[in-house]
Specification:
Blueprint: H1 6-20, E1 21-24, E2 27-30, E3 42-47, H2 48-61, H3 64-83, H4 94-109, E4 113-122, E5 127-135, H5 138-141, H6 145-160, E6 162-171, E7 177-188, H7 197-206, H8 222-227, E8 229-231, E9 234-237, E10 240-246, H9 248-256, H10 260-274, H11 280-289, E11 294-298, E12 304-308, H12 323-336, E13 346-351, E14 354-359
Helix pairs in contact: 2-3, 2-10, 3-6, 3-9, 10-12
Length: 360
């Protein structure tokens, strides 16, 4: 599959994107009518550079992290597809698979990649082939472990209910073009984590869009068009590329990565740089637009950040901190207040349909 008509590609990246994703202050959710699902998948807008640095720093510490980060991405992709009720291939519903290919192709063009040269599946050979331009993260570090190698595999592993193996990856000399071939094996795929049916109604209730009490710049999506710049499907704020990331990624990072200080430091460095010379209002606006819910700062010797309607995932029981987010907030506050601030503690509270995170 390939969009040869430049107008059609522009239409997908600039107009259809709003059909795929609904962004209002505090909340970013999928907005699909492609599949028969009643659950919107909660997303965050986060800097591409943070994930580039996570992969680079962790792999520098140990090559074993390559496998861990790919597996983390696989579980993200698998559960993304599951939550959206993407059709599973049965051998008799090839049209459903082609429909998924169309969805994956268009979604990629509105979220993670500047252009897709082709995305083809040969069911007879059991082969998946794709070539893209400027696939986020991978274009900067030649790996793309979480998203490119992991999440994409996870999506297809859900669709085929088989283990998928990457048989080749080719990069152009400037890393802008990346081409992969995947093989659909005969082995059944078993994710290390899967949403249960029982939590879906809870997921919908807790992550439902609601009015904010602290944000005063309106509650509709128009503000995103004013703040963010879109270039060929990729989002930019100033010169920083931002990408849609499933909230589950924060939980998976926290529950599986032992190098918590590395996560904190990466977040701190980015937050301090991005918020240099900015004020508290800009701080609040940023985290609201990134999708973190209703954000407030309580002044004190060390400010306290309260995020009401923080994105909830059933993996909440496995985490008691969000080192990466705590780092971003600490770096941001350090710039806003012109003094070094390190938030030390995260408190999580779930009550009925409310989930709140407090960083202090």
């Amino acid at each position: 599959m390939r969009l040869k008509n430049k107008f059609v590609k522009w239409w997908v990246q600039n107009l259809l994107s709003k059909k795929f994703t609904r962004a209002v202050p505090g909340f970013i959710v999928t907005n699909f009518d492609n599949f028969s699902n009643k659950t919107s998948y909660r997303l965050l807008l986060l800097p591409e550079d943070i994930f580039v640095n996570i992969e680079n720093r962790l792999v520098d510490k140990s090559e074993k992290y390559k496998e861990s980060l790919v597996k983390l991405g696989e579980d993200w992709g698998y559960n993304f597809a599951y939550l959206l009720s993407v059709p599973v291939y049965t051998g008799e519903n090839e049209k459903a698979v082609q429909r998924f290919i169309s969805f994956a192709y268009k979604y990629g063009l509105t979220s993670w990649v500047r252009d897709v040269k082709y995305l083809n599946i040969d069911l007879r050979k059991g082969e998946i082939r794709a070539k893209s331009t400027d696939f986020v993260i991978a274009r900067k570090n030649r790996m793309g472990l979480i998203l490119y190698q992991g999440c994409i595999k996870g999506l297809f592993q859900y669709v085929f209910n088989k283990k998928i193996e990457i048989t080749s990856i080719k990069l152009s000399k400037d890393f802008s073009d990346i081409e992969f071939t995947m093989s659909i094996t005969d082995k059944r795929y078993n994710p290390s984590f899967k949403y249960s049916r029982e939590v879906l109604s809870q997921y919908r209730e807790i992550n439902a869009i609601r009015p904010l009490s602290h944000f005063k710049e309106g509650g509709d999506s128009a503000i995103y068009d004013k703040v963010f710049k879109t270039e060929d499907g990729l989002f930019y704020w100033r010169d920083y590329c931002l990408i849609y990331v499933g909230c589950i990624v924060l939980y998976l990072l926290e529950s599986r990565i032992k190098e918590k200080q590395v996560l904190f430091d990466i977040g701190f460095d980015w937050g301090k740089e991005f918020f240099q010379g900015e004020n508290l209002n800009f701080f609040l606006k940023t985290f609201v637009l990134f999708g973190f819910g209703d954000v407030a700062v309580i002044p004190g010797k060390t400010p306290k950040v309260v995020m009401k309607y923080f994105p909830w995932e059933p993996l909440e029981k496995d985490v008691n901190d969000f080192s990466l987010v705590r780092g971003i907030l600490s770096g941001a506050l350090s710039s806003v207040y012109s003094k070094e601030i390190h938030l030390k503690k995260t408190s999580l509270m779930k009550k009925h349909d409310l989930f709140e995170a407090v960083f202090q």
